[in-house]
Every structure is written in C-alpha cells, then in structure tokens.
Design a protein that fits this description.
Low-confidence stretches: 1-8, 190-203
Strand order of the largest sheet: 2-1-3
Helix content: 40-55%
Oligomer: single chain
Mean pLDDT: 82
Largest sheet: 3 strands, antiparallel
Order of helices and strands: HHHHHEHEEEEEH
Structural class: alpha+beta
Amino acid sequence: QRIKAEWASHAFWIASITDAQMLAEMFEAVSDAIANGEGLAAFKERFEEIADRYGWQPRYGISPRAKIVFDANLRSAFAAGQFAQYTKPHILEAFPEWEWRHRDSRVPRPHHLAQDGKRFAASANPPFYLPSGFGCRCRFIPRRASGEPLVQVDMAQNPKGIPGELSPVATVNGQREFLADPGWGQPPTIANRQQVIDRMVAK
C-alpha cells in the first residue's frame, strides 16, 4: 500500500514491513546511523541482522534495500536540517529565492535536470521541498533576489499517486511536469507535521 506524501514526511516506514516491533528496530538503526555518523557498511550489517531475525526478505534483496533506506533517510534528515536553517526569518529576508541545484547522477531524471539553475520563491511554507524522489540528490541553494521571473509551482493530481493526493507541478521545457515523485516533496514544516499527525490519529 502506498503511503501518502504528507504522512511519509513525518512517519518512518519501509515498504512491505508490517511488523511494528521490526519497524521500530529499523527506525532505531536508522536514527543511530544518522546520529553517530555511521557509514553504509555498518548500517547494512545491522539492517541485515534485523531482517534475518524476523525472517524478512525484500523483493530485490537485503543489500539493495538497505542502501535505499540508508540513502533516503540520510538525505531526508539533511534536508530537514537545511530547511530549518533556510526558513529562519532573517535568512528568508536576505535570501528570498531558492535555486534548484541538480547533483551528479548516473541516470538523471530529465525533469530534474531541466530545473537545474532555475529559481523558486523561498518560503517557510513552500508547496514542495527537495529531495523529491528515491535517489534524488538535488538540493536548494539560498540566493539573493535576482529580479528575474521565478518558476511558478501549483498542485495537481499525479496519475501515478494516490487518488486525491496533490503533487507539485511546473512547466518544464514547454511541458507540464511533476517536480516530485509520488510520496515525496512534502516540506518538513513543524506546523504541517502536527496537522498530519492529527489527521492520522483521527483515522
């Protein structure tokens, strides 16, 4: 089952794991790796030990899944810290624009590469934030006002996502392109987090 983007931003999950205790142990492993600066090799050992103990075998193997989990959570944690810095009032005042910076990738997403160097309005409550997909290494860089037109972002239903879930979309090379994969792109705002938790509890 797919996880809504707004839920995935604030809740830890790994596709196909339904055992709450196992998920809690995976969360602890990820948290420790981030807090202690562990490398991928050390994290893989712990990930594999937990998976073996619960008899869990992901579709494409333990090692590839461990790397996906490690990379995704490390980048998301970095993005959350970066967002907290970028959205401080005095920083937003000095740097009212964010520049999309595409990072090196062996198989770049064409619509991500097309945004490289483009500028978006900086905001404490933006329509989306980077990274915007598994393996995405793009990031925003704060910039001073350029006086140039900024990329206009609106929200629309992504046909690949959950019905009713809206994703950020903009015009890329004359075509309308979604800027985030389903389940990604939700900005890590504190206010948004509480709203999401309230809705999850209500369910």
